[in-house]
From TrEMBL:
Listed InterPro entries: Bact_response_regulator (IPR050595), CheY-like_superfamily (IPR011006), Sig_transdc_resp-reg_receiver (IPR001789)
Residues where 4-aspartylphosphate is found: D73
PANTHER family membership: RESPONSE REGULATORY DOMAIN-CONTAINING PROTEIN, STRESS RESPONSE REGULATOR PROTEIN 1
Pfam short name (any one): Response_reg
Source organism per UniProt: Sulfitobacter dubius
Keywords on record: Phosphoprotein
Protein name (Swiss-Prot/TrEMBL): Transcriptional regulatory protein CitB
All copies of domain Response regulatory, residue ranges: 24-137
């Protein structure tokens, strides 16, 4: 909902049980599995969520409304999330809390340099860590009054989201991927596989990323990933 809409509901007051009540969170994330996890975290916390799966979609959202919080993945199919973060930090009015998310914790310094208010490393499944990261980035008046118990809860997103991500990468690999596309495949699968606890797929994605970083041919690594993707697609059909 547009924050300037005169018919919008009055701002809700956060509570100890739902500390993000009244907030609108824009999640800029191309993984459906990761986004489902954040949807559940927002639901448990009282926040409303909107999703954009690429930079272009996020910019369209921001032309219509201004979220309270923006969670921006650093690796997106049409560019780097750092570019959007730089735009958000310079916009007027500024989004109140801008938080970078990534499966690569080594990217946190780059995100900090771009002006983020916080950083969350994937997989993001801890309710207390999620809430604390957002509350720490907000002004004091946005936080619930008084003490609150930190929830000892971890969410488990539906595996359908993981299968959707696998189908997405199958489509990407089927279009004769170039170097830029292969870099995207490697970083995307590293995060998704870690979130899904798919260690073999994560290892294969890391091997691809390593060879790409060295500038070496990646034919065997790409073929290995393509085979693993097809195997997981077959599992989806069987289910």
């Amino acid at each position: 909902m547009d924050d300037t809409d005169p018919f919008e509901r009055p701002t809700l007051t956060p509570t100890a049980e739902r500390p993000l009540l009244g907030l609108t969170v824009l999640v800029v994330e191309d993984s459906r599995f990761a986004c489902e996890a954040m949807r559940l975290l927002c639901l448990r916390s009282g926040a409303r969520i909107r999703r954009a799966d690429c930079l272009r979609s996020a910019r369209r959202h921001l032309q219509v409304y201004r979220p309270t919080v923006a969670l921006v993945d650093l690796g997106l199919p049409d560019g780097c999330g750092l570019d959007l973060i730089a735009e958000l930090t310079q916009s007027t009015p500024r989004v109140e809390a801008i938080i970078a998310i990534s499966g690569d914790s080594h990217k946190e310094p780059d995100a900090r340099a771009a002006g983020v208010d916080g950083f969350l490393a994937k997989p993001i499944t801890s309710l207390s860590s999620f809430q604390q990261a957002i509350l720490a980035a907000l002004s004091e008046e946005r936080r619930p009054l008084g003490p609150r118990v930190l929830p000892d809860e971890y969410i488990t997103p539906d595996r359908i989201g993981f299968q959707d991500d696998i189908a997405h990468i199958a489509g990407v690999l089927g279009d004769q991927p170039n170097d830029q596309t292969l870099d995207y495949v490697a970083q995307f699968l590293c995060g998704v596989a870690r979130s899904a606890n798919d260690l073999r797929l994560e290892e294969a994605a890391r091997a691809l990323a390593h060879k790409r970083a060295l500038g070496k041919p990646v034919g065997p690594e790409t073929a290995n990933i393509a085979g693993m993707i097809q195997h997981r697609l077959a599992e989806r059909i069987a289910i």
